[in-house]
Write a structure and sequence with these properties.
The chain has helices at residues 23-33, 46-55, 114-126, 143-153, 181-185, 203-206, 244-253, 286-291, 307-314, 335-342, 351-361, 366-372, 375-381, 386-396, 422-428, and strands spanning 2-6, 37-39, 56-60, 63-66, 85-98, 101-111, 138-139, 158-161, 194-196, 216-218, 233-237, 259-265, 275-277, 282-284, 329-332, 400-402, 411-413. It is an alpha/beta fold.
């Protein structure tokens, strides 16, 4: 049976996150999207942890479901009648000095049980860390030391570096990261089984870095609102319903019999793919950055060096050399974005887009529509024939790309190339 997972989301207790991020609503959106197992997120936050304890019950080892009395599922068949399951995965922010440099790192922490979460929270609180301030708390602790502490509480805990290439807060980030896993985690590197590639890179980019042969590449949404669930995900096949330990084993062994592929944002759509200066809406490729001395040609300030640039700095081979040995991936454009293009509206929140999105996903989940449903079937059920054409073009990779940069999302379109911003053109003239 297929299991699609999204192991990086947040709750309403994280900064800049939707108030709709509560478990029942998350479950409803997962079923509409086609996600079978989702992270709880934010289990270090006292109020969110209480919400988890109140609403979740363990279904099998390390896998939880909503208590029946807490659930009133929407009337849709998008997930083929399968109810959402949860795993206890949260994101932690760390700021600390190492090697005469201030490091800013985000890590995902996987816990096998609510009891283990409680023990971690108690230990972090006893050490003076403020877990109440944010769903993604900031801890002044080295990544190696954090992992040692977590494993001393429960050896089944694993740590996965989050959005590994993001400039500001990531293991390989251009602003404050490291050049290798070992440089960051030291003696605990042997327990790093996976990294999260983030929205601004895809597996093919990561395959250029031979050091990453030792880990599995995961893709997750990092959703700050329910509608952004499933921007990226992971696809597995199991004969029997998987447990927490089953998933950890798959990562540890890089088991391609069970880990089938990842579902990817086009990396150009990520908001840190290219180098750039948001203030002047200027962006460019790494090669052009080097020609410019890594400075904005308008304001002359240093450019924010993006993921593409950082991958090239650490790469040491062509991805084609190893593609046959790697877990494959499939690139998508979120359904709402394609509907907005079809209907020629600027926002995915427009009434026309929302109504058609809901109507389609009442019948078939978003992932089923984007990945599996025959194009002729989509032509039959969609209100507008161009929806089927858009999905067909996306599946074939016939898309136009405008890379994101310095915190500004890029755009991927299927019918018309995105032109450069007029304001940028005027400034550079």
């Amino acid at each position: 049976m297929r299991y699609i997972t999204d192991w990086h989301i947040h709750s309403k207790y994280s900064r800049a996150c939707s108030k709709d991020l509560e478990l029942p609503k998350i479950a409803d959106w997962c079923e509409r999207k086609g996600i079978h197992i989702v992270a709880t997120g934010d289990w270090t936050h006292p109020k969110w942890f209480a919400h988890l304890e109140e609403n979740l019950v363990e279904k099998r080892q390390g896998i939880y479901e909503l208590k029946r009395l807490q659930r009133q599922p929407e009337d849709n068949k998008g997930n083929q009648g399968r109810e959402t399951e949860f795993m206890l995965v949260t994101e932690i922010s760390q700021i600390y000095k190492k090697g005469d440099k201030t490091r800013r790192i985000h890590n995902l922490v996987w816990s096998p049980s609510l009891e283990t979460c409680r023990k971690v929270n108690e230990e972090l609180t006893a050490r003076g860390f403020n877990l109440k301030s944010d769903g993604r708390p900031i801890l002044g602790i080295d990544s190696e030391e954090l992992y040692k502490l977590l494993r001393s509480i429960d050896e089944r805990i694993i740590v996965v570096p989050a959005h590994a290439w993001t400039p500001w807060y990531a293991i390989f980030g251009s602003k404050s990261g490291f050049d290798s896993i070992e440089e960051c985690f030291g003696s605990m590197s042997k327990y790093i089984y996976a990294i999260e590639t983030g929205l601004s890179s895809d597996p093919a980019m990561n395959w250029q870095v031979s050091e990453l042969d030792s880990v599995v590449l995961l893709s997750n949404s990092d959703a700050h609102s329910p509608k952004n669930l499933a921007r990226e995900a992971n696809v597995f096949e199991f004969d029997a319903p998987p447990t927490y330990d089953d998933f950890v084993c798959v990562l540890k062994e890089q088991d391609q019999n069970h880990f089938k592929y990842t579902i990817e944002f086009y990396p150009e759509e990520g908001k840190y793919h290219f180098d750039g200066c948001a203030a002047d809406l200027f962006s460019c490729s790494p090669k052009e950055s080097l020609r410019l001395g890594n400075r904005c040609p308008v304001c002359k300030k240093k450019l924010t060096l993006g993921v593409h640039h950082r991958v090239e700095e650490l790469s040491n081979r062509d991805a084609e050399m190893v593609v046959e040995k790697k877990i494959p991936f499939r690139s998508i454009i979120p359904l709402a974005e394609m509907l907005a293009e079809v209907y020629e509206v600027k926002s995915t929140s427009s009434k026309k887009v929302v109504n058609e999105y809901n109507r389609l996903t009442n019948q078939i989940s978003e992932f089923e529509l984007l990945l599996d449903t025959p194009i002729d079937t989509i032509k039959h059920i969609a209100s507008e024939p161009l929806v089927a054409e858009a999905i067909d073009r996306m599946r074939k990779g016939n898309v136009y790309k405008k890379p994101g940069f310095d915190g500004i999302f890029g755009r991927i379109t299927v019918f018309e190339e995105v032109l450069p911003d007029k304001k940028t053109q005027q400034k550079l003239m």
